[in-house]
Structure formats: structure tokens, C-alpha cells
Amino acid sequence: MDDYQLLIDLHKNAERQGPGGELETQLALNLSRIDKTAPLKIADIGCGTGASTLVLAEQLNAQITAVDFLQDFLDVLADRAKKQGLAENISPLCCSMENLPFNDAEFDIIWSEGAIYNIGFEKGIKDWYRYLKPGGLLVVSEITWLTNSRPAEIQEHWEVEYPEIDVASAKIALLEQNGYSPIGYFILPEHCWLENYYQPMQARFQDFLNRNNNCEEAQGIVEMETHEIRLYEQYKANYSYGVYIAKKLNS
Ligand code: SAH
């Protein structure tokens, strides 16, 4: 199995593939002041196995296109949706977020949790703009500095992993410069990282290693994730995901 298949193997049986939480998805919905009874068309981009998709489908009167480029994750999502009686509201779509087959002004809401970094925040908000109706909403979580200066170790780590990491004011300015009006922002609290994401992952490590004959590549992935968790625990005062809610302007 190559590294990619191993990563899928480690993450596909998880409720989520990145930091977040059901309550936080709901908080973003509340801040958006969306009319929950209105019929809505939503794209959930980089949906993974559907952590946010299922909350949105359950809370809203929506048709949701759930986009991910990994079919394995979408299969799990389809199964979860069926079990929760939400299959009719969710259409899984296997494609890259860089090359979406959508029409202009097709969606009331574009939602994306823990995923836009894959193409970069600036490119993502620019590319996806045209798929939103005027007045439509963008809800996106993005890794964000919480402090204006940081210890060298964490600064260097993120400069390599994701040089676009920045403070919230810079992300909000980018939204303003690209035709959006920011209407809400909050940061994901610690439990979204530890209880909801890292601890369930740590609980899967041993089975993952056993399943993959303790091979070097699988051990490498566990080491990499363990390093990431150690950094978070040490430097969590300095970064988190920010959740940004913004409205597409009318012209
Ligand atoms: N929103 C989910 C998953 C976040 S992890 C959650 O919060 O749990 C990021 C997701 O983006 C993964 O499922 C990954 O497969 C997907 N992804 C990464 N690059 C992508 C791309 N270029 N196009 C579409 N999906 C992508």
C-alpha cells in the first residue's frame, strides 16, 4: 500500500478527518442567520466522511452536494447518510475542489471545514466565488494564528506545512478584497482538536499498524501524526482553525 492508501486507511473509519465539532458547525449556522426552513442548495467542499454534511442535512431544508476527491470517504458518507435517513438530501460527488463542475450562481451556501488549505485559502475563496448566488454565504474553516508572534519551532513548522497561515485580520481582509462581506468569525476550541479529532485517531493507531503488518510506511504515518499532536499540545495558544462566515456581495 502506498502512503496515500495508508492515509485513507487510517482516516476513513473516523467521524471526521480534521478538527471540528457538531456544536461548532451549528454555531456557524446560527451566526450565518440563515433561514432554516428555506429550501437551500449547498456545496460542502472537502467533505470527507461527512462530519459537517450530516449536520447541515439534518438541520436544514437543503440539497447538499458533498464533494471530495476520495471515493472511499464518499462511500462512508453515503452509508452514514442512509443510516440517518438523510440520503435523499445528499449527493456525493467525487471530484477535485480545483475543478468543480458547477454553474455560476448555483449555490446558496458554500461550506468547507478543514479542507480549503488543500488549494490555499486565497485561491479557494476566489475560485468558488462564482458558484455562489449574490447574497449567498461562504462558511469556511482555515488554520489561523491566534497570536501576533510565535515561538520559532511552531512558526517554522507552519511556514513549511502551510505558508498561507496568518492572523484572522489578514484572512478577513482577503475576504473583503475578493467580494465578500465578513459577518462572523470564531475559533475552534481545544476539544475540537483533542476530543473530536486527535484522541479518536490515537485510539486507531494500534489497529492501523496491525492491519498493515507494522510496515515502515505505516509507522512513519503514526510518527508524523504523533508529532503533529505534540506540536498542537505544546503550541495550542498560538493557532487553531478560525471559522469564517461571509456573504457574497450583490455586485
Ligand atoms: N470536512 C471534513 C474533512 C476535512 S479533511 C471534516 O471536517 O471532517 C480534508 C478533506 O479534503 C479530505 O477528505 C480530503 O480527501 C479532501 N481533499 C483534499 N484535497 C482535495 C481536493 N483537491 N479536492 C477535493 N477534496 C480534497
Characterize the structure shown.
The chain is α/β, with parallel strands linked by helices. The protein is 45% helix and 24% strand. It is built from 9 helices and 8 strands. The chain has helices at 3-11, 22-32, 51-59, 71-83, 121-128, 152-161, 168-177, 190-211, 216-235, and strands at residues 39-45, 61-68, 90-94, 107-112, 132-145, 166-167, 180-187, 239-248. Strands 1, 2, 3, 4, 5, 6, 7 and 8 form an 8-stranded mixed beta sheet that branches. β1 (39-45), α3 (51-59) and β2 form a beta-alpha-beta unit. α2 (22-32) packs across α3 and α8 (190-211) runs antiparallel to α9 (216-235). The radius of gyration is 18 Å and the shape is globular. The termini are far apart. The mean pLDDT is 97. S-adenosyl-L-homocysteine binds next to α3.
Number of strands: 8
The largest sheet, given as strand count, sense and whether it forms a barrel, is:
8 strands, mixed
Judged by helices, strands and strand pairing, the structural class is alpha/beta
Shape: globular
Topology:
Layout: H1 3-11, H2 22-32, E1 39-45, H3 51-59, E2 61-68, H4 71-83, E3 90-94, E4 107-112, H5 121-128, E5 132-145, H6 152-161, E6 166-167, H7 168-177, E7 180-187, H8 190-211, H9 216-235, E8 239-248
Helix pairs in contact: 2-3, 8-9
The structure holds S-adenosyl-L-homocysteine.
S-adenosyl-L-homocysteine (SAH) is lined by residues 16-18, 20, 46-48, 51-52, 68-70, 73, 96-98, 113-115, 118.
